[in-house]
Fold these 4 entries.
Entry 1:
Amino acid sequence: MQKRFLVLVLVMGLAPSVLASYLLLPTEQKLLSRDEYREKIEIDGLFSGRGTAGEEQGVPLVWFKLRNTGNQTVDEVRVHVNFLNEEGDIVHEEDFYPVHRGVYGVRVPPVGPGEVWQMSNIRYFMPSGVPHTWKVGSVTARVESVRFDGE
């Protein structure tokens, strides 16, 4: 945990440059709850479509990356994706775990402060059960939950 505070030393009779000097020490940063920290994980580059070749042809696909804008390391992130129809109504919902401890397959490394998690450009999440009423490309996504490294 870092602590930051500023100490300004004012001593009579010293030169102005010395009076203006200060000592910078680490400051304490507030640790957020899981619910508060969800806002610190940004979803960038959200894309959805249907596969165009091979086994994925016609299968719904979702791709995104996550950016940790906070000051804590997360080792599990759950992203909730809504699939919408022409009218903007939700026709399917699915949760994805792009960052996890290995419970959902091979462990994905934690995402530290300032880091970005990103799938390769040729890999996608492939949700099951998306109805034909889904308007291709029409999805919304939000970070539903996080877990901190070491919890």
Note: The chain has two domains: 1-30, 34-148.
Entry 2:
Amino acid sequence: MIRFPIVKVLALTGLAFAVAVAAQARRPAPVVLRCEVPDLAKSQLGARQVCDRFVVVFARVLQRPVVGAVSASGPSARDTLRVEITQPRRNAIEARLSGRYDGRTVARGPIAIDVMDRALAHQDVDRLAETLARLLDSRPRPR
């Protein structure tokens, strides 16, 4: 049996705890994205699928975990955003974004995607979500 003096055991335990705390501090807090899609309940796009796509795209663009919430109730966080997605016409989709992000109040939109020669598709939803998420992201972009 290997015996360690109590001082070494306490030092190793403290070091492991410090590493775990430091790793937790570096992990960004999740963003809560509340998704409201009143017009899309009967749309071919599907309300739940549209919200899920917004969550995935926001997480990729912001490089932070994003938690989706379909209703006004649900998880709360320091960074809580509300996106209202409507379909004003059969071949158009638009979104408004409001809430708090990185310690500031934000309000963006409406931002719209219109298509003329085809039906709306999921890639249109992705483009709309990416446009809104990039408006939030203040990091400089390489040109």
Note: DSSP finds three helices and five strands in the chain.
Entry 3:
Amino acid sequence: MGSYPDLFPKGLRAARSRRRRIRQWGAVLVLEVLMLAAASIILRADRVDSVGEVRATIKSTVAQIDVVNGAIGQSRARLQEVERQMAVVNEVSRHPDWSIVLALLGREAEGTIVVENCQLFPASQTTAGGPAEFRFTLQGTCNAQRDLTKFVQSLQSSGVFSRVVVAETTRIPGERGSETLHFSIDSAFAEGGGR
């Protein structure tokens, strides 16, 4: 058998060949788009998992930071409380035991002296270079001069005070001819003890 003549016109053949190539390229492009979409979906899924993991890690780290910040806050509050307690201890330990002085005043007054006011002034260095002295003043009343004299003498002989001086006395008339003696005493005692 021999070859047969081609009855299709050349233009039709070229158009058919073009359509076939367009269909092939269209199929290739569709396959390429599908492959890109699949790759994109896979990458997004992997990225979503990575983002989720990163978010979970960030949440965990933030929670740990919050716990540490809470512990730091509690530690700061505790530190401030300890510092306040230390300041009180330091302040108290630097001063004499005032209960001794107050007990001495109560004992020596023997019910004849009424102490209305007492003041303590900061310690000052003595001129001889000795220990610092606290100045202690008392104001009060008594019925007679002899009660005041006895009170001052007993304070001087107690050994607590290095100096006891009556600074001022004033007679105040009372009812039915009685008098009350108002007095002010200036005294000092050394930081480490009396004389």
Note: Strands lie at 113-124, 133-142, 163-173, 179-190.
Entry 4:
Amino acid sequence: MELTFDLREIASKTKLVITKPKQFFKKYDNEKDIKPALVFSIVMSTLASLINVVLLAFFVGGIGSQLTGGALPAFDLVTPAKAIGFFFSSTILTVLLSFLWSKLMQFWLNFFKVGASFADVYKAYSYSRAPLTFLGWIPLIGILFSLIYTNYILILGITEYTGEKINKVATRVVAFVVVMFLLQATFSLFPFISSIN
């Protein structure tokens, strides 16, 4: 499988999916395989990892402290080797998890009578990640807004690709997100709760 990276096309897609998601999914509804979405996912994951490494270096690695004359505390926990390792592992893991999340969501949607193929869900999921990449690093407001907008774009994409009614898709996607959040919260709290006894 050959993947081609056209950065102008990716920039154009990013702008369109963020500013006019309905128009984006109508325009790119003819993509039959997942290669363009995979390329988009790789680029968005790389950018998100790069943003996170820069923020880690600035706030945790001591660069912010040096630039502000000590106004920000210096932790010096981020070495160049750790930053590079984080960058590559984060990028690879995000791309791999996009397949897992898409497959889980496809199973969920099909279980609740939304006829979605893996390609439909993967494309919608990959393209919907653009707002999270560019806004998700902003504390609280950026994270909250980008998560809501990302899910809105995901719903629009699945609706366009499957031809299902938006209300049907929206209820199933929101339910999936809530269930996944609760599962993640439960497993995150389990070590803490078990250590109390």
Note: The two ends are 52 Å apart (CA to CA).
